[in-house]
Amino acid sequence: MIKKSKKYTLKKIAEKLNISVTTVSFVLNGQAKEKKISDEMIAKVLAYVKEIDYQPNQLAKSLRTGKSKIIVFMVEDISNQFFASIARIIEDLAYKKGYKVIFCSNENNDEKARDLINIFKHRQIDGYIIIPSPGIENDIRSLIEEGIPVVLFDRYFPSLDTNYVVIDNEHASYQGTKHLIENGYKKIGFITIDTQQNQMVNRMRGYQIAVEEKDLNSNILRIAFHENGQDQKKLKIKKFLEANDLDAILFSTNYLTQSGLEVLHESFPELLGKLGILTFDDHEFFKIHTPSISAISQPKKEIAVNLMNVMLQLLKKPAKDSEPKNITLNTEFIPRVSSQHR
Amino acid sequence: MIKKSKKYTLKKIAEKLNISVTTVSFVLNGQAKEKKISDEMIAKVLAYVKEIDYQPNQLAKSLRTGKSKIIVFMVEDISNQFFASIARIIEDLAYKKGYKVIFCSNENNDEKARDLINIFKHRQIDGYIIIPSPGIENDIRSLIEEGIPVVLFDRYFPSLDTNYVVIDNEHASYQGTKHLIENGYKKIGFITIDTQQNQMVNRMRGYQIAVEEKDLNSNILRIAFHENGQDQKKLKIKKFLEANDLDAILFSTNYLTQSGLEVLHESFPELLGKLGILTFDDHEFFKIHTPSISAISQPKKEIAVNLMNVMLQLLKKPAKDSEPKNITLNTEFIPRVSSQHR
DNA sequence: CTAATATACTAAAACGATTTAGTTATACAA
DNA sequence: TTGTATAACTAAATCGTTTTAGTATATTAG
Lengths: 342, 342
What we know:
The structure is a homodimer of 342-residue chains.
Chain A: H1 10-17, H2 21-28, H3 39-52, H4 58-65, E1 70-75, H5 81-96, E2 100-105, H6 110-121, E3 127-130, H7 137-145, E4 150-153, E5 163-167, H8 169-182, E6 188-193, H9 198-213, E7 219-223, H10 229-243, E8 248-251, H11 254-267, H12 269-272, E9 276-280, H13 284-288, E10 294-297, H14 300-316, E11 326-329, E12 332-334
Parallel strand pairs in A: 1-2, 1-3, 3-4, 4-5, 5-11, 6-7, 6-8, 8-9, 9-10
Antiparallel strand pairs in A: 10-12
Helix pairs in contact in A: 1-2, 5-14, 8-9, 10-11
The structure holds a DNA duplex (30 and 30 nucleotides).
């Protein structure tokens, strides 16, 4: 049971033991030896502190030290399975090291992202793990210049020398497209988000290189991230499918795959058996979808672990000391043969 | 662009304007009129504060006022689609009111939940929105006794008079089971989590009442929440399906449905077309699954809005003032007819 | 025996806000 | 003229820590 903690403070402890606040503080912060506190004194303090289960006020601590033991984890949308899974792992890793995590969603929107950063700047946040929206390069830059630990992921700014953890998008996409081609598909469509952000640009490039290599046509549909509602997105996909007689599709992200599948089920059920479907970001349900859907799976665990490793290192040393860490991880290609294709 | 904020403080502002810190503070907190600050003074302060884009240090503020403007949102597992979606809505609502949200996962584990609460107790968290693990009734009670705003959801403790937001589990389950029966299914299985927590108990009761009403047998599989890994769960389901010649299944929660579907695909593909499948918690993918899966859908938006409403009210008034709010929302039954069933 | 050093501890400033209990100057009443 | 209100502002305490710059006593060196 949680104790009805009577709000102990250093001062009360000091009074009770008839010693100074300073001594208590030194003992509690492991500086006792260094500050020449006697062994009996150390024992006395530790015993009492244990007895009353004293927990220091973190706010006061933060105010004084400037460290909050909180890190921010900012993604496009925390309700997206992919981000939520990584968040869950980050949460665990952080808690083990005594950090709390504040999650937030920027909707890939610069203003929202800026607002959020601004809010957090006045809360002494210790570090930021961020999926940057397209136009906040300068904001990220100024965070870094102020010496605040920042790690980007999923995408980064080539012109900004930062810490980041990403995957090899181009290769993943190239490899996936090639796999489709090798399985006999010739008219392969690529459905992606209309953006200049490098993760998407690279995914597209991988696709393009693969199709051009085999002298195939590229068929690309770009959809705005903030397309007017889900229905507009689906309408665009529908028209794209009607206009192009495709035999396979590569979706550049999981939420597009979801919309795409819905369109197929609603409007082109006859295509479902024939179409080769490949998606970025695996999901449990792709495995049991009919037909099952091949996926380019991002290593969530590895991403999270790397993010936290870099972050923890930054939190130890002033950021400027070391070269920014640029980590590129490999994806896993998960081919799935649908029962219909057998 | 975010300004390279030169860490202004009340003191610096006061010095610059040649007035006292107190005056600045009064003006900024809207107490100017009440404290008889002259209009020119108010204008002067506001102008300067605007010019330098002053943002008060929230830690100092919190230390002094005891309020952190942070609320905790604790669920079983933040990577679960259902919880993540609610978290996303909560996030937005909270930010609009100037609150940040710290998400965390207790894994339905008392010790983890207690640890988390303990950590947060020393951070002056303003309020808690919690899915309680089975044995933390007393911990919740002591939080409440200390006057800290707490709202439970998804489940509650009948013997504890708290604020909570839940759904009418029994009715939802009853109605869903009845629907299966009316569609001709006679051997209906119920796969649930082995727990005494009331959300699950009620879901089971709804099922039982419905089958007994029609003199049908009940076939129940209980799986431990912390079953040894995903594979053990699936194995139990597999054995259950082998042992019982069912024609329909009701899953009491989304992650069980997922495991169940995997088992069906892997081991009993021939059943997929015949079996009636109904699940608690809707998911985009249930719509496009083959066969499509009927769902008892919880009103995520409504749940989130109600949670925040209650929380915001509690944050305004000392908790003890008013009677705890007990809110029970209705689910939506979404019947889906699979193409095979046509 | 004195000076220097080490040991064991502490007073008080600081972090940056809020808030209580003033102070001064002016206005008005008796 | 004195006393009381009121307007307009402020000094200083406070929240609970950390940390700097001590102090007092004991020990050692010369």
